[in-house]
Amino acid sequence: MELSPLAGALLGLIGQEPRSGYALRKVFATTPMGVFSDSPGSIYPALKRLAGNGLIAARVENARTLRPRKVYELTAGGRNALGRWLAQPVTRDLVTDGFDLAMLRFVFMPDVLGYAATVDFVAALEAELTRHIADLEHFHRAHAREMPLAPRLGLQSGIEGFRAHARWAARARRTLARPAARERRREKQR
Amino acid sequence: MELSPLAGALLGLIGQEPRSGYALRKVFATTPMGVFSDSPGSIYPALKRLAGNGLIAARVENARTLRPRKVYELTAGGRNALGRWLAQPVTRDLVTDGFDLAMLRFVFMPDVLGYAATVDFVAALEAELTRHIADLEHFHRAHAREMPLAPRLGLQSGIEGFRAHARWAARARRTLARPAARERRREKQR
DNA sequence: GAGACCATGTAATCGGTTACATGATTCA
DNA sequence: TGAATCATGTAACCGATTACATGGTCTC
What we know:
The structure is a homodimer. Chain A is mostly helical. Chain A is 71% helix and 7% strand. Chain A contains 9 helices and 3 strands. The longest helix of chain A is centred in the last third of the chain and has 29 residues, at 115-143. The A-B interface holds A 31-32, 35, 96-100, 103, 106-110, 118, 136, 139, 148-151, 153-158, 160-161, 163-165, 167-168, 172, 175-176, 181-182, 185 and B 31-32, 35, 96-100, 103, 106-110, 118, 136, 139, 148-151, 153-158, 160-161, 163-165, 167-168, 172, 175-176, 181-182, 185. Chain A binds a DNA duplex through residues 4, 6, 20-22, 25, 37, 39-42, 44-46, 48-49, 65-70.
């Protein structure tokens, strides 16, 4: 019952508004989202699986044509699964194996779990990143002397990437925690 | 004949010195390399495939015991494949879907293709990153107004991550191009 | 003698990618 | 009328992950 990143992305997007497979492909093709493939062979089987698990349901338009258009929306179970996927604890893996997955969850989080949970999530990312950076720096201090030039530069690249993520998290946390920003946005949306 | 990242990592490590499956697992388990799984089910089948393709060959120690130790080394074909894998042109994908793969190639590059090629590679990374950042900033300018807070922050996280990579590339290129650094290292290794 | 570490493998599963396949509609 | 866009699917393949399986060796 663990969602794959693609499944999470699809559920999150369908949760925003009902969408067809084609509409989802366009999102992946035209926005800098998660870097998922927009190929049909990727998305239609994934939607089929989600529908098979009862997490989404299709409203069929233009039935009895050759290719009826299927607009998917979340079921109660789907909304639940999305919530649990987003609420998973922040692990070391989440900040190390590509920050994309963390950002994917972050983007969908406010609408599903609310602002408070999102602030906590970003704070947890920041904490885990800080720990991971400390570990990498420890490794660097211990082994930099005996490492050839390229691996040492590679390690530094990693450390600097994680530092950039940590700086972002600190700033995002402050932005999100500022009530004024939320209020202004809320006003705008009316 | 396209190498997977795992295959490239294995070939690169075996190219440095002959290694057994277990030794390779230990590298993945104890160094911050590429974040590959160190599970046996991951590495042994991969080694088998590489051996099947004639890219590596095993020197068997303790034959006729139950589990003979196999130390793999590169064949001529393997060294060739590694060289071609490293020499692939820098594409947009290489800098966008996880910088890890680029860093993996970077780490093995000097020993196989030499310093000049490595400098070129880093310069190409820098150029491609600069282009990609420009594209993301363009997208940001065009859509930031209508984007909700979380996606906008997510996009900023991406941009800042790529900026960090670009700064690293610029610095690494200068470090690598400085002949003095190379010479000093070369002296040390004697 | 128990536990950690060395050491290699197989089987089942699962999901993503590529390539293939089809056809309607809209606009220049 | 031809190209681009809308729109949905299947089939074959491949490789990574997880769990399972085995047993030797070294050290306390």
